[in-house]
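[step 3/7] inverse_fold.run input=structure_tokens len=406
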């Protein structure tokens, strides 16, 4: 394994640096209408046009345990314990010697979201080939992102088990696992991946504002998934109409009261101004958010007076929800979670617990793990604690503010 840094900006590869621009233009134009299952062959042709040998696309599965090739004749690779997985976990390229050259493992990343890896084979490696490999990875990350929105084949390809109907319905509403900008990043995980019902998360960036939300609906059936789906739709509808945080919560209250009057959900909704660090939040009967600063949890920093769950406001709450405010410091992390996370029990009945939960995040972050990787490792630790048999949905959302990166 050879870690790779960015090459000098003007490294030359001699005669091999020439590119047939007309051929490359044809391939990029063809990519616009290519079907998802045709991307494997297209990647190889683009690689050849760039003076590389071959390129293989691997996408991460729903639980982020395997890297699954789009070429159905190939076998998946483990995220933990492979060079490909190393590139995925660290979001950095890795190079390995091959019998007839080298293989460059390039992370496939769309914005802040990790999609998988691209395996680029070449006879040798230099600065030009390295930049072209990176360019190829950027291109196919964008292609995959644009095509997966309508491709059942891509959705099925990254599954390793049969998905139940409630989970299928709910996942149709979920955003990407990770979103963000140069000032803030939000990332989330949800388990059980194929059997989830009432838990959900949402996050969105609107100009310089990050919106986040976590929900836990009553019950564990199709109606639970329908409740959270209606709640997310109502929240997005109001956000996109320019409503503030109080308007968003009110719209969800009203939507559930009108369309699903016998159902409710707990939740936390947040609005972070990524320029100033001002955070507004509303807690509706949910475990309070946690604020992590300088590698420790600030006890009670985001606690607030209790308010009833969403959907019960008309019966139990005052006309207006209470919106709370604080100002984050650069580097702060805010953690939202559902009770299935800390209440996961092992065979002896011992809970995973809040202390173990927060300590895991603090230690992993201090070790230099990216937030998305921290949550991947954490949700696997929770599943291992309960031997992959969660008794309740478990959802975690973590966002941070880092204005110094602008």
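[step 3/7] decode complete -> sequence:
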């Amino acid at each position: 394994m050879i870690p790779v840094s960015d090459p000098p900006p003007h490294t030359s590869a001699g005669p091999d640096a020439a590119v047939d621009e007309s051929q490359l233009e044809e391939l990029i134009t063809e990519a616009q209408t290519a079907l998802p299952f045709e991307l494997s062959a297209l990647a190889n042709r683009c690689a050849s046009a760039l003076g590389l040998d071959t390129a293989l696309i691997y996408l991460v599965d729903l639980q982020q345990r395997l890297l699954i090739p789009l070429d159905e004749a190939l076998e998946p690779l483990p995220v933990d314990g492979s060079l490909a997985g190393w590139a995925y976990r660290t979001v950095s390229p890795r190079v390995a010697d091959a019998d007839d050259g080298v293989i460059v493992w390039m992370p496939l990343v769309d914005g802040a979201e990790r999609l998988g890896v691209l395996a680029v084979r070449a006879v040798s490696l230099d600065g030009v080939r390295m930049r072209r490999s990176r360019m190829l990875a950027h291109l196919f990350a964008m292609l995959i992102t644009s095509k997966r929105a309508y491709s059942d084949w891509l959705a099925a390809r990254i599954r390793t088990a049969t998905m139940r109907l409630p989970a299928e319905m709910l996942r149709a509403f979920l955003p990407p696992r990770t979103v963000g900008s140069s000032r803030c990043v939000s990332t989330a995980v949800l388990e059980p991946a194929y059997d989830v019902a009432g838990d959900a998360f949402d996050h969105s960036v609107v100009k310089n504002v990050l919106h986040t939300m976590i929900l836990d609906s009553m019950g564990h059936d199709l109606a639970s998934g329908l409740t959270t789906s209606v709640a997310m739709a109502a929240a997005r509808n109001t956000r996109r109409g320019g409503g503030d945080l109080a308007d968003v919560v009110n719209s969800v209250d009203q939507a559930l009261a009108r369309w699903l009057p016998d159902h409710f959900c707990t939740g936390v909704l947040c609005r972070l101004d990524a320029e100033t660090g001002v955070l507004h939040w509303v807690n509706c009967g949910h475990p309070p958010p946690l604020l992590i600063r300088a590698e420790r949890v600030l006890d009670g920093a985001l606690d607030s007076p209790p308010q009833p769950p969403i959907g019960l406001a008309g019966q139990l709450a005052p006309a207006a929800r209470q919106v709370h405010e604080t100002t984050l410091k650069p580097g702060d992390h805010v953690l939202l979670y559902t009770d299935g996370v800390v209440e996961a029990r092992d065979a002896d009945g011992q809970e995973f617990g809040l202390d173990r939960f927060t300590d895991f995040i603090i230690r992993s972050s201090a070790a230099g793990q990216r937030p998305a990787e921290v949550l991947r490792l954490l949700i696997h630790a929770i599943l291992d604690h309960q031997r992959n048999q969660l008794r309740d949905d478990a959802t975690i959302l973590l966002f941070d503010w880092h204005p110094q990166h602008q």
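[step 4/7] annotate
DSSP finds twelve helices and 18 strands in the chain.
Residues 127-148 form the longest helix (22 residues).
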